[in-house]
């Protein structure tokens, strides 16, 4: 069994993948700031022969996790942002400083779709661009939905946006604090994603497929007008591509990869931008 770990600022997500059948056998998540303790929702390490890790948490969290895992698991692979990998050239001036989850997303997106816009809606929302040919342009970072909400300190943090809400309902002006805040942060996030995508495609003269991941991907997806696919396992896809262990992975297959969305024409993107400028 292969254990894939995606340690974010809020949640540490894991999945167990059967190395023979490529099936995902189980999944879970624990709060990143809490210790891994028996009885918590953690995988059974007895069945694990290899671990692959992407972590953006404090160095101490990664160190502790690796120390704990090395005691029981033979192969432990830790991903790092590199200047270049798998045909993608990291756009950061200091490539090692790009969050490794973003790097994993860029690698997975490129392997799946070629040029792409990879959006990760977690504690932060990150929007990264890779051109066909593999040039990573860099990206954008904004606070995620929960951070935006908490920063207002209006006591609304425990009332999350209902993931089933229609985007139209979230467009309405709120008539109580919790709705005003939820609708506001939602609009801030989806407008930024729509606009940033259009601006960069316009600048680069190319229309790119968009891929969405992270804890808030489903709800954000409802408000993103750009054609896109939700890929919950995108960071894991980067781990599979970086450390291929199975036959399928060596052949470039990533578990749970969606169909590549067909982007709209550049003309349409530019017309949309021109229209929004007129208003
Ligand atoms: N059950 C949940 N528990 C915690 N956060 C959730 C849950 N469902 C959705 N979220 C949202 O997902 C975000 C965490 O997403 P995730 O992609 O795991 O973030 P990170 O990678 O930064 O840890 C939270 O900030 C919150 O807005
Ligand atoms: C931007 C991030 C905080 C996003 O982390 P997440 O929301 O997935 O927990 C993370 O990718 C990070 O710490 N990046 C380092 C800074 C950078 O990418 O420029
Ligand atoms: K993120």
Automatic annotation (TrEMBL):
A monovalent cation. Ammonium or potassium. The keyword Nucleotide-binding applies. It is an enzyme of class 2 (transferase). Substrate binds at residues 92, 99-102, 177. Its EC number is 2.7.1.33. K(+) binds at residue 120. ATP binds at residues 6-13, 123. The active site is at 101 (proton acceptor). Its cofactor is NH4(+); K(+). One of its GO terms (molecular function) is metal ion binding. PANTHER family: TYPE III PANTOTHENATE KINASE. Homodimer. This is Type III pantothenate kinase. It comes from Vreelandella populi. The lineage of its organism: Bacteria, Pseudomonadati, Pseudomonadota, Gammaproteobacteria, Oceanospirillales.
């Amino acid at each position: 069994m292969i254990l894939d770990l995606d340690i974010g600022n809020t949640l540490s997500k894991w999945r167990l993948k059967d190395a023979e059948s490529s099936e995902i056998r189980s999944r879970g998540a624990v709060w990143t700031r809490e210790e891994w303790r028996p009885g918590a929702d953690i995988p059974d390490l007895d069945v694990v022969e290899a671990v692959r890790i992407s972590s953006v948490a404090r160095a101490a969290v990664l160190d502790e996790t690796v120390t704990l895992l090395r005691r029981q698991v033979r192969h432990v692979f830790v991903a790092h942002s590199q200047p270049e990998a798998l045909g993608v050239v990291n756009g950061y001036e200091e490539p090692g400083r790009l969050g490794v989850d973003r790097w994993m997303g860029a690698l997975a997106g490129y392997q799946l779709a070629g040029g792409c816009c990879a959006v990760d809606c977690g504690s932060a929302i990150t929007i990264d661009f890779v051109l066909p040919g593999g040039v990573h342009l860099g990206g954008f970072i904004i606070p995620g939905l929960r951070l935006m909400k908490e920063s207002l300190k209006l006591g609304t943090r425990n009332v999350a946006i209902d993931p089933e809400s229609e985007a139209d309902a979230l467009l309405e002006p709120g008539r109580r604090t919790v709705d005003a805040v939820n609708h506001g942060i939602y609009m801030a996030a989806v407008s930024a994603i729509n606009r940033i995508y259009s601006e960069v495609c316009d600048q680069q003269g190319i229309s790119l497929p968009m891929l969405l991941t992270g804890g808030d991907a489903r709800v954000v997806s409802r408000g993103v007008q750009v054609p896109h696919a939700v890929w919950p396992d995108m960071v894991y896809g980067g781990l599979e591509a970086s450390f291929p262990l199975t036959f399928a992975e060596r052949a470039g297959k990533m578990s749970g990869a969606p169909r590549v969305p067909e982007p709209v024409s550049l003309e349409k993107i530019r017309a949309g931008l021109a229209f929004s400028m007129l208003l």
